[in-house]
Amino acid sequence: MTVREFEEKLANDKKNPKKLYAYINSRQKVKTQINSLIVQNKTITNGTEIANALNNQFQSVFVDDSDNTELPEFTKRTNESNRKGHCIPKEDETG
Fold first, then answer.
1. Which of 4, 27, 49, 89 could staple 93 via S-S, CB 3.0–4.6 A?
2. In the beta sheet, which residues pair with residue 37?
3. What is the pLDDT of residues 29-85, one digit of tens each?
4. Residue 20 sits in which domain range?
5. DSSP 65
């Protein structure tokens, strides 16, 4: 089987689209990488320093609430409340 035949077979396989997307992703040659980062007007090019700078940034914007045992209160949603303002047919109307 040639590469072209294999690719056509993947493209026409409607039962398993994940195989096609996995194949496409494996064939991509573009790899995203951060080569440099400017932090406080200083350019960083070392991979470890870039990782640490990004980690510091992420830590500064996220809050650790693991000690918060209170969960938010959610009202129970019913099928009727989900339909308000939406055109969702009732189950007996879909027939």
1. 89
2. 44
3. 777 788 999 999 999 999 999 999 999 999 888 877 777 777 778 888 776 655 555
4. 3-60
5. -
Measured between alpha carbons, how far is residue 31 from residues 17, 23, 28, 49, 93 in Å?
23, 16, 8, 20, 49
In a domain, 50, yes or no: yes
- Cα dihedral value 45, 48, 49, 51, nearest 10: 100
Neighbouring residues of 9: CB distance < 8 A, sequence distance ≥ 6:
1
Estimate the share of the chain in helix, then strand, then coil, as percent rounded to the nearest 5.
45, 5, 45
In a domain, 71, yes or no: no
The model carries a pTM of 0.39
Contacts for 70-79 with beta carbons within 8 Å, 24 or more apart?
none
Amino acid symbol at 65: D
Does some domain include residue 18? yes
Instruction: Give the total number of structural domains in the chain.
Output: 1
